[in-house]
Each structure stands twice: as structure tokens, then as C-alpha cells.
Write a structure and sequence with these properties.
Layout (H helix, E strand, L loop, with lengths): L8 H12 L15 H18 L4 E2 H15 L5 H10 L3 E4 L2 E4 L2 H14 L1 H8 L8 H10 L4 H22 L6 H4 L11 H20 L4
Antiparallel strand pairs: 1-3, 2-3
Helix pairs in contact: 2-3, 2-5, 5-6, 5-7
Amino acid sequence: MDGFNPINSSTVIEQFVESVLQKYKPVYAFRSSFDYRNQIDFLAAMAEQMCRRNIFLVEYSELYDWTRNYFDHLGQEHDLSKLIGHFVQNKVFAHEGNSVFFRYNIFLSFFIAHRIQQSQAFREWLLESHRYTDYIPEIDIYCGLSRSDSAMIEFFSQEFEGFAKTLEDMVRPLAWADRLEKLTLPIVKKTEADAFADRIASQLTSELHHRHGMKL
């Protein structure tokens, strides 16, 4: 299409997140060190906690504890209630009753992808034991954000090769054509239809059973 320039979807998502977090707003509600980058790092850490526990609708008190532990680890002090309220007000979090969650799935996916960038331990956790199959959209966003990550491409290349080999082994017996070339059709009467079918089946399956030591 004339005049159409495709845009990387992860770029669009990142721009949306930036606008929601008011990246270019001159005055923040918190200390100057808590800028846009600090905000997405914090939110990504909260997304990791949700993933590891497989709970995406969390009690406010639990999110508060995660937040306190996060900043204690960094050696920073914040008004934690005010901070969480900031993200609720900016519609990153939704706070309903006593539960808090990411308002949009795309936010959760983006922050998971960002956490893969920031934490090698989380990356390894997500990729082990085929757990990554639950995070395909997030990995897609991550690859858009980190286009030079050859290790991730190599990992999935090896995974694909492994699955392809397994599938090949499963369907190989079905690809044999030599039994059809040796097949002979006996003359059969209408009353012997069942016997006829049994003889055909025997010719088609005898070699398969012989090669694999299988029993009917």
C-alpha cells in the first residue's frame, strides 16, 4: 500500500505506556530520581511477582508488601500508598474492592517483557520447562524491544529443532510407501468381505509391526 510504513508493534506499545506514565511531564509526584525508567522498572518487578505466583489479581496488602520489599532492596524510601495510588490514578493499576491488578493486559505483557530485559533470573525462570508457552505475546514484545538478542533466537531455534525431531519420529511410520508397492489384491467373494479386509490389513501392517516389535 502506497504511503504505508509498518511499525514494530512493541514500539507502539512502548509509546502508549510512555504516554500513560506521563514521561514528558516536567514535574513528577515523587522525588526526582523516580523518573519514567524507575517507574517501568518498578512495575516490571510487580509483574514478575504476579507471574511467579501465577496470580494476577492480588490483595492490596500483598502488593504493598511487594512494593516495600522492592524499595527496601534499592535502599529508597517512598510513601508507598501514595505511589500505588499514583499508578491507580494514571490507570496502570485498577483498584477494585481490596484487589489490585493491571488495568489492561497489554500493560501486563509490556512489563513482563521489560522484566525479561532487566532480570536474567526471571528470564531463565520463564524459559525453563516450556513455561514460555504461557508467555508467547510477552516474548514477542521482548524480541521487538531487544532485537539484537541472538541468544533468545538460538534458544527457540534449538527448541524448534527438538520438536521437529520428535514429530518426525512420530510420523515416520506413516510415510512408508513400500507396503503399497508390494500389496496384492486377492480374489474375494462377497461373503468373504471381512476376510478380505483382514488380509489387506495384514499386508499393510505386518512390516510395521516387525520393524518396531509391536503387537496387535
